[in-house]
Amino acid sequence: MTNINVGLLSPYRVLDISQGACGLSSKIFADLGADVIKIESPTGDISRFRGPFIDDKPQIERSYEWQYLNANKRGITLDLDIDAHKELFKKLIVDCDFLFDSFEPGYLRSKDLSYLDLIKINPKLIMTSITPFGQDGPYVNFLGPDLVVWSLGGYMWMCGDPDRAPVRISITPQSYYHAAASAASAALISLYKRNQIGKGEFIDQSVQHTAPWFLTHTYQWYEYENVVLKREGGWRQFGTTRTRTLYPCKDGYVVFMSFGGRLGESVQQGVIGWMKKEGEIPDYLKDFDWSTFDALNTPENDREKIFGAIGEFLKTKTKSQLLEAAVRERYTMAPVNHLGDVAENPQLSSRKFWHNQFNENLGRSLIFPGAPFLSSEFAMKYYRSAPTLGEHNEQILSNL
Amino acid sequence: MNNNKPLQGLKILDFTTIVMGPASTRILSDCGAEVIKVESSTRTDTLRSATPYKGEDPSPNRSGYFALYNAGKLSLPINMRKPESIEFVKEHLVPWADVIVTAFTPRVLPLWGMTYSKLSAIKPELIMLSACLMGNTGPYADLRGTGQLAAALSGWYENTGWADKEPVGPYSAYADFVSWNYFIIAVMAALDYRDRTGKGQYIDQSMFESTLQFAGPQLMYYLNEGKLTTRMGNEDPDYCPHNTFQCKGDDNWCSIVVQNDKQWEILCSLMGNHNLFGDNKYNTLKNRKQNEKELNNIINNWTKDFDSFELMYLLQTNGVAAGVVQNPADLFQDPQLRHRDHFVVRSHQDMGYHHILTPSFIFKNSDRYPNSAAPLLGEHLEFICKEILDIPDNLFAELISKGVLE
Fold this sequence. Notes:
The complex is a heterodimer. Helices cover 35% and strands 15% of the residues of chain A. Chain A is α/β, with parallel strands linked by helices. Chain A folds into 2 domains: 13-212 and 352-397, Rossmann fold (3-Layer(aba) Sandwich); 245-338, formyl-coa transferase, domain 3 (2-Layer Sandwich), CATH 3.30.1540. A 6-stranded parallel β-sheet of chain A has the order 3-2-1-4-5-6. In chain A, helix 1 (24-31) packs across helix 7 (174-197). The longest helix of chain A is centred in the middle third of the chain and has 24 residues, at 174-197. Chain A starts with 12 loop residues before the first strand and ends with a helix. Chain B is an alpha/beta fold. Chain B has 2 domains: 11-214 and 340-401, Crotonobetainyl-coa:carnitine coa-transferase, domain 1 (Rossmann fold); 242-327, formyl-coa transferase, domain 3 (2-Layer Sandwich), CATH 3.30.1540. Chain B has 18 helices and 12 strands. Chain B has helices at 20-30, 64-70, 83-93, 108-112, 116-122, 147-153, 174-197, 207-211, 216-225, 261-270, 274-278, 285-290, 292-303, 308-317, 328-333, 335-339, 381-388, 393-401, and strands spanning 11-14, 34-39, 74-77, 99-102, 127-132, 201-206, 242-246, 253-257, 321-324, 343-346, 354-357, 361-363. In chain B, helix 1 packs across helix 7 and helix 6 packs across helix 7 (174-197). In chain B, 57% of the residues are buried. Chains A and B meet through helix 2, helix 6, helix 7, strand 6 and helix 8 of A and helix 1, helix 2, helix 6, helix 7 and strand 6 of B.
């Protein structure tokens, strides 16, 4: 069957036998036009069992995670414990360009389906395995759910209140999304090489290894200065000093950071200008020289005096007033949005970010988030609902 | 130059600053692309003035923050405020580049006459990616800001922290670290498309829209049901116990996740608490969730006298998921990350030897180690002009004297 979508990657076929959030890798390919076949075990992918659910009914065709990650893909079921199914899997490998998996290290080898086995069938195969810690090493047999890998990856250390345990992001599992997106980029990087030399690649993507990249300058503070930075709640540490980022406003919170200098000047002057217009400005802020103000080297008490006054002003404004003003006055400030605020953001609707797709299996439409970037050559669309369990078994497997 | 890198021969002209763009081109450089970073002594990358500095005094050439995200690149100083500089870019650099990447607010490139339509007139197969906070069109296109603000805008602050306290947000510019993946993916997909069709393209990347990709199911829950998610500490609707527990010493923690009833039995047995396993308050996931707070206290009483690493090994070797919350010092010692060469040491003229992270993926047949440390400001001026761009000596001297290359 020819691929009915046309996109940047439409000539390619992707097999995705990974589980759960790892399915983001092949979602990226599917949304860019590749022909993606999701392979599930006969009991179904774990995303099918994770909430939230459509109408809050926990059923295997009603998981939002499943619908989101697997739209634009076709779906089949295979049981790799059955020899006949293994043979079908190998037949699919012959004509595919990419394979994504997230089995525990060694599992595919035990089934004679390792990369070295599969390149005998298809030397151009680009295979990407996502595992919590990598294909080998001392933690190779450790269990690695999201909370555990982000603890060991170090990212959680910097998140949370100083007087409580470090905390993860509650939209889960973030660490696996990071690994899956990184795996997709590594696979495309390998495609570039394949186009030159005609040979495939194996990519060992670790989930844990993604996290240190998000720690910015923390490891350098330790390496150069022997300083271990720590989580600071709504504040952020910059080495030996820290700055407030979170301020209460009328209907929630707003984030801005004051560094002083070029970046800070525009923020403060924008807000101060607004305060002046409304006549709510203390004398010591009226002629303050922001261009020479160095937030990080000003004692915290002095800074609190300055930003305390700004903070009092912010309390009188709503999130949407503050966002409108930030756009108008060109200063860097953002409301702490919940996802409902995001859904109603005028910027996203103006850019036609939301997509409405009728799902025949459910008998209703679903609204999806749109593309991560806009291309002048191609517009991403949702053209196929996430497959029901085994939906394309006959269509795909009977033609092999 | 290493010949075993996947992106050998790829040429990228990089105008991006701070984190998202530089981190992306850092990965592309590690994978073999030649990346020319355009900056200027009159306007340096803000990250060059970010602490800590290696050495005594602050210097734009010694920022550890900059060193991480810019290793392996070539630095070319161009003062973009001069009209001659823009002509220089169009005449010499655009023909050289496969890909041009930028991260300006949307008003900058039109001001310079460097929109995609202008540049693709010079080179039709050019790929240009233009990233900014909100995207290059729309009513909020001019909103300025970093990934910290994008994290607030796109729901990450609201969804990180404890239910009974104000949000804390994820550390640092979180949106940069979601978006950079899509930056690389856009560039690589566009290159493949170009190689098949001969067509270049323009990519408009909104950090806001890229970042929302990692919140898809929860966004859909609101869009289709009108229901909101919020922060819930370290709890999880599908697992219990699922939390981060205190260990011996000051600020030492170990996360524990029980994924099924069998693991619950193992945990109870390791705790030497068979009564707990028999207790009907905790015998199913549903019951454990109902009595979660009490259960967390019981476990915390057990963990608080353990060394965090001993506890992790005890649990993992018995089949229960556990992980120490590692701090930046621990990351240097982590045996698993070391096994993957997560840090390599590179030498630098002003910084000396220092550590640089490697990409989180490993190729079986290719190399992905950074070629070198981050460049000094303007370090490769002569090399780029003479060896890469073949600029004649008299023109080079003229560009220097006019302040184009400064």
